[in-house]
Write a structure and sequence with these properties.
- By secondary structure, this protein is an alpha/beta fold.
- It has a single domain, classed as Spore Coat Polysaccharide Biosynthesis Protein SpsA, Chain A.
- The chain has seven helices and nine strands.
- β1, α1 and β2 form a beta-alpha-beta unit.
- The longest helix has 21 residues.
- The relative contact order is 0.17.
């Protein structure tokens, strides 16, 4: 399965700024990207990165630069050749099994929703589907498929639903992930602790 992984290296994961500085966020984002690429390959996919700027690291996959909006860049890939999958670069919990479920889902369009109304991954098998990643994109993608007369399948996957955007999401990385992103956090001196009965990730004392 041809798989597009959009990636923005310019100021990634800005909402992690309370705990990671700019250089750390770039390194952590690269680690998550590597995990996603591994998961795609493990599921039998053929990943390529579409980045908003040139990358200064070798990610082991083809990289093209498209500095347009996410929706415009992805739409170009959808229009270019089908079938195509799109998997976001911050799905640090993704595994070959979860990505394989996405690849194997039925329907003209398969959607994996995020936890806040977004679309974290999708597969398009038929033309005339339009992407729109602004707002409640999962709802909008279902409606776009309906307008085009396309059947939609929904992939209900915890591992594809969690995109690592906020500091609280780092807990899921520590608890559920075992790849490079988790290793990077540990090597950078972070640990999972319980404060007032709640798990949090914070630097080692």
């Amino acid at each position: 399965m041809r798989t597009v992984v959009p990636f923005d290296p310019r100021n990634p994961n800005s909402r992690l700024a309370p705990v990671l500085d700019a250089d750390q966020r770039r390194e952590f984002a690269a680690a998550m990207l590597a995990d996603v690429l591994d998961a795609v390959r493990g599921a039998g996919g053929d990943p390529a990165v579409v980045a908003t700027a040139p990358l200064d690291v070798d990610v082991g996959a083809p990289v093209s630069v498209d500095d347009r909006s996410l929706s415009a860049a992805v739409q170009s890939e959808v229009d270019a050749d089908l079938p195509v999958a799109v998997v976001m670069a911050d799905l640090a919990l993704a595994t070959p099994e979860s990505v394989g479920r996405l690849f194997d889902a039925g329907g003209d369009v398969a959607l994996a929703p995020g936890t806040a109304g977004g679309t974290n991954a999708l597969v398009v098998h038929e033309p005339d589907f339009s992407v729109d990643y602004h707002g409640a994109s999962f709802r909008d993608h279902r409606e776009a498929a309906k307008r085009a007369g396309l059947d939609v399948s929904v992939v209900d996957s915890f591992r594809l639903a969690v995109d690592v955007d906020d500091v609280a999401d780092l807990v899921d990385v520590f608890v559920h992930a075992d790849g490079r992103a988790r290793d990077w956090l540990a090597d950078a001196g972070f640990e999972l602790v319980v404060r007032d009965g709640e798990p949090v990730v914070e630097p080692n004392a």
